[in-house]
Every structure is written in C-alpha cells, then in structure tokens.
Amino acid sequence: MLIVDNVTKFYGTYKVLDQISLRAQKGEVIGVIGSNGAGKSTFLNFLSGNLCPEQGCLVFNGADVYVDPLFYKSRVGFQTQRPAVMKDMRVFDFLKYVSQLKDIEGFQVMVQKILKDCQLSQVANYRIGELSEGYIQRVNLAQALLGNPEVLIFD
Fold first, then answer.
1. Is there a contact between 21 and 7 (Cβ–Cβ < 8 Å)?
2. Which one of 73, 101, 119 terminates a domain?
3. pLDDT in tens, 71-81
C-alpha cells in the first residue's frame, strides 16, 4: 500500500502542493489531472521519492519512504515527462546502468527481456542520441519497467 499523508510543497514562497492525501492499494491505477502548472509533475516527483515535501509523509508498505529512500526507489519505476536518458550511451548500456543502480540481480536477462518487450532489440547497440523521439520514449519506458517495480509512475 502507498499512503500520501498531508503533503505540502513550496517552491520559494509559492505553494505547489497543499495538504495532499492519497491511498493506493496494490494493483490500483490512479490518474492525476490538472491544468498546466497545477503541480502534477511535482506530485509525481514526490511520489517517485525524488522530492521531499516541507510537510507530510510518504509511506510504502508501512514504512516511511524517507527513512530508507533507496529501498523505496528500488521498487519504483518512473517514466518522466522529459526523458532523463544519457544520449551518448548505447541503449543496452544505458539499461544495464539503470539495472545496476536499481541493484537488479540477473540484470543481463532482465535487460534482454525489456529490450524485447519494448521493441528495442533492433536498436540495442545504437546511441540513444541517434534515435527518434519515439524510440527515446521507449527507452524511457524500458528503464521504468526494469526490475518489475511495485510502483509505476508515468508523467
């Protein structure tokens, strides 16, 4: 279970998130809607464990995420709005690198499976910067899916 409790976030004096609360059960799909600048991406960055709030907490399976952030981050897949990919790296090497960051055992097999599932096998040895935007989005999706994350976030 994922619990967001009374989360508030400021950028300077501007309150981006104001006492947001949410509960999500395993297998549940939740959408976040709002106008441009409403704080959706900020909220999703918070959910991914990449952003600390000024107030409130994020609890995953009964544990405060900020007590052991690496434990939580290893269980989260996050596809960002703007792909955070290393354009000089080859697709396979990038996914291998992300697998190692996530401390995934048997990453070679996992990377091969993700390449196939995301239809990236044919471009595995291409540099990411050589790919079309569509393929770059697939690489971004592939890195989010690595390790069969318990929490999957799409921005």
1. yes
2. 73
3. 898 889 998 87
